[in-house]
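Title: Comparing notes on inverse folding

I've been comparing how different people in this forum approach sequence design from structure. To keep things fair, I'm posting one structure and asking everyone to reply with a full sequence. Here's the target:
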């Protein structure tokens, strides 16, 4: 599947079959995250791969009870090592660049999962402190997203997108 096709096929999947995610596929998905761009090549990305059902259940609770977080065979918690970017860019690195960098990595995870035939969902609704406790991050590592991954048990319709004419501005807004 080419990149543009993966972009157009990607859906937020919230129901998963129990089939495992193949290790070679999981590694390819994690590699895709690793290759995301980062400001100044600081690479603040930290990934916590969660397969243990008990840990996934705690993540689900920290994600305000969203059941699919615990039901997916794998949940990847995408984290930003704030010190890596802040050491070079100060406050802007801490508050913006490391978040942008991990967002790019999260999008790569979603697209790689889609291209390999898996469903996924970008979960941003969670109690950050609780997630940090569940996965044991140090204070300078911030959970930014949870991405459940697995074979889809649903086939959501394509959501409407605003036309380019509404969102593209030339030279000035």
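Reply #1:
Here's my take.
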């Amino acid at each position: 599947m080419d990149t543009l096709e993966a972009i157009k096929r990607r859906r937020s999947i919230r129901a998963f079959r129990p089939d495992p995610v193949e290790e070679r596929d999981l590694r390819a998905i994690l590699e895709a995250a690793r290759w995301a761009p980062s400001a100044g090549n600081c690479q603040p990305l930290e990934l916590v791969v969660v397969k243990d059902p008990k840990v996934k259940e705690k993540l689900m609770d920290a994600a305000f009870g969203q059941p699919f977080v615990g039901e997916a065979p794998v949940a990847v918690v995408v984290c930003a090592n704030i010190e890596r970017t802040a050491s070079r860019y100060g406050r802007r690195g801490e508050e913006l660049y490391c978040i942008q960098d991990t967002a790019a990595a999260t999008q790569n995870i979603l697209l790689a999962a889609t291209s390999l035939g898996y469903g996924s969902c970008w979960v941003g609704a969670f109690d950050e402190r609780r997630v940090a406790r569940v996965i044991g991050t140090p204070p300078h590592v911030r959970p930014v997203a949870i991405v459940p991954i697995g074979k889809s048990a649903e086939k959501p319709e394509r959501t409407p997108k605003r036309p380019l004419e509404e969102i593209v501005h030339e030279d000035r807004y």
